[in-house]
Amino acid sequence: MKDYVHRELEEEVMAIGGHYTFTDEVRLSFGESEVLYLKGYALFDSTCCGASGCGYALVQGFVAHWKFRKDGDGYFVSRVKPIKDPDIRRQISRLIKEKELVQQIRFV
């Protein structure tokens, strides 16, 4: 299990070749469980080789305890179980692709 801290959405994070933004926190039903993932986009607009971008989902894991406490900065914290099984990752990726317009799906 690991803690996931619910940060502010819609904040641009600058990177060397552009920026990225998380736009949504999504809870997706999966059997008897829920999967938590972040949806966002990245824009590569300050690179030397042209501009580009992509939509992505960053899967945090199965929700074990939703917003069960706040951290020292006042952000809610949820407890999640990372998803390690390759077959389950494929099934979840397929469900996310059916629901969202994303080019990449990553599991943490």
Give the helix/strand layout.
Layout lengths: L1 E4 L7 E3 L2 E13 L2 E12 L7 E19 L5 E6 L4 H14 L4 E4 L1
Parallel strand pairs: 5-7
Antiparallel strand pairs: 1-6, 2-3, 3-4, 4-5, 5-6
Written description of the protein model:
The protein has 108 residues and is mostly beta strands. The chain has one helix spanning 86-99, and strands spanning 2-5, 13-15, 18-30, 33-44, 52-70, 76-81, 104-107. It has one domain (2-107). Helix content is 13%, strand content 56%. Strands 1, 2, 3, 4, 5, 6 and 7 form a seven-stranded mixed beta sheet that branches. The mean pLDDT is 93.
Which regions have little confidence, pLDDT < 50, spanning 5+ residues? none
CA-CA gap between termini: 12 Å
> Structurally, how many domains make up the residues?
1
β-strand percent reads over 45%
Mean pLDDT: 93
Number of strands: 7
What is the gyration radius calculated from CA atoms?
15 Å
Helical content stands at: 10-25%
Order of helices and strands: EEEEEEHE
Oligomer: single chain
Count the helices. How many?
1
For the biggest sheet, the summary is: 7 strands, mixed
Q: Based on Cα principal axes, name the global outline.
A: globular
Structure classification: mainly beta
